[in-house]
């Protein structure tokens, strides 16, 4: 029994309400809400993304680590680049959400409903598959914004003369295309897509699963508190699983190709070199900012999304039910 059917019929036994209940949200609205929710969340967590990227690049090649801990990174970035410096690459972060999250959540929502039978959500493995498919397609669409984001957030750690100086994400996209060719926009596409598959399998499936579990305990209702805890659990699983793929992505997208010679041949080469030169646990460099980015990003995204969906159902569709589609 979904909350939609369960809540509506006793209160609105008339035909008009019955028709309303069958109306669904237009698909483009789902895409739009997904992207907006992600962009809203990015405004809060952009600095953490910057710190994570700096940590992942720190000590590259087995040299001296630029930052010892994430706290050291934050204080040294604040000192040398200021508060504004923490928001470097914001335009790329926003475009990344607009492209990646819009596509991913839109496709996820559509597939989720397609594979729901008689109000029963798809099973765990189905949800994981849906999450992975949506994530992979979203990541491919989002790769150009992603490489811009990595390079912009990485820039400030270099001596002035070695910087790339992209002024905004649009400048980054234009210059990468002009200086390195159109296909460079999709450099690191492999690990970007792999990372998204891991993240989305873990995140979207564990979110729905955690929410169903929390509701099943009888201690929670389908409200913000439940969404909050479900997201926190989901974030922890996702961070641990996806960091090694993420560091490969970050380093490949940031690398410079000098005289046709690339620093890394591919994702496996990054993993091999990191483990050999910096130690196994370096694969999880930047765990703290990553979790504190991912957790709240997930929380804020889903909260925005659930609220926008609810408001839309209430205002546009005149529904009282609060059932969500995720
Ligand atoms: C970035 O700006 C600095 C200082 O103006 C300059 O030295 C450097 O060459 C610039 N980088 C590029 C790629 O133009």
From TrEMBL:
Lineage: Eukaryota, Metazoa, Chordata, Cephalochordata, Leptocardii
NADP listed as a keyword: no
Protein name: Mitochondrial 2-oxoglutarate/malate carrier protein
Gene: LOC118430363
Keywords for the protein's UniProt record, in alphabetical order: Antiport, Lipid transport, Membrane, Repeat, Transmembrane, Transmembrane helix, Transport
Coiled-coil region(s): none
Organism: Branchiostoma floridae (Florida lancelet)
Function, as annotated: Catalyzes the transport of 2-oxoglutarate (alpha-oxoglutarate) across the inner mitochondrial membrane in an electroneutral exchange for malate. Can also exchange 2-oxoglutarate for other dicarboxylic acids such as malonate, succinate, maleate and oxaloacetate, although with lower affinity. Contributes to several metabolic processes, including the malate-aspartate shuttle, the oxoglutarate/isocitrate shuttle, in gluconeogenesis from lactate, and in nitrogen metabolism. Maintains mitochondrial fusion and fission events, and the organization and morphology of cristae.
Subcellular compartments: Membrane
InterPro entries: MCP_dom_sf, MCP_transmembrane, Mito_Metabolite_Transporter
Repeat region (Solcar), residues: 29-114, 122-213, 222-311
GO cellular-component term (any): membrane
